[in-house]
Design brief:
alpha+beta
Length: 222
């Protein structure tokens, strides 16, 4: 019911909080934000630039991608148009430009989210696959929850030594023939420099095409 080559990642979201050098922290300078936008768009296309009361938003409407600086939050939300590696490199380079422009070297609470979709063959495809393989619940029991159920999904939460994994596997509500997979990895606590950001982003991709793919394929074969 699952074809190995059709699993595809389509969005990457990465963010962290800036550790201010003084308290209370001051807002991002509006002139520096304008200069930052100029530097980022020398290499990457974000046609829309909106200055906010405490930050800025750089937007690519065609792909619903954006770079956000809001108070202490720095986040890049990027569509994966070609391949994960190119998107990862883009995100890291944008962070490096921001860190250099604002002279930032201490950060906290890195978060990485990767989203993917995987077509499922068969009747009522994705929801039926999950219900048949993982949820031995009768229609009568499901009915207790009420009528109109279109989809049923799974959620897993893992507390590890230095990270927290939150995994959602559910039908894509925009296309019930596909599984929607959402991997959210949080790295609590402060960190210095951006050297480890690339490897943490890569960990989300490796988890998707490693443990998550093997888990779903092992169930499909049973």
């Amino acid at each position: 019911m699952l074809e190995h080559k059709l699993l595809h990642e389509d969005r990457l979201i990465v963010g962290f909080f800036v550790q201010p050098k003084k308290y209370p922290p001051g807002p991002f300078s509006r002139s520096q934000l304008a200069l930052l936008y100029s530097k980022i768009t020398e290499k990457y296309n974000y046609p829309n630039f909106n200055q906010l009361p405490s930050g800025a938003l750089m937007v690519q409407l065609a792909t619903q991608s954006h770079v956000q600086l809001q108070e202490l939050l720095v986040q890049v939300n990027e569509a994966i148009e070609v391949h994960f590696d190119a998107t990862k490199q883009k995100v890291v380079e944008i962070f490096e430009i921001i860190a250099q422009e604002f002279q930032l070297d201490t950060f906290a609470n890195l978060g990485v989210k990767v989203m993917a979709r995987w077509p499922v063959s068969g009747d009522r495809q994705a929801s039926k696959f999950l219900e048949d393989k993982y949820l031995k619940i009768s229609d009568t029991s499901f009915g207790i929850l009420g009528s109109g159920r279109d989809a049923t999904g799974l959620r897993f939460h893992f507390n590890r030594v230095s990270s927290i994994y939150d995994l959602h596997i559910e039908p894509d509500l925009q296309d019930l023939s596909k599984l929607y997979i959402d991997i959210d990895i949080q790295y609590p606590g402060p960190f210095t420099g951006l050297e480890q950001v690339g490897s943490h982003i890569q960990a989300s991709y490796d988890y998707l095409y490693g443990e998550v793919q093997r888990f779903l394929e092992s169930s499909a074969q049973e």
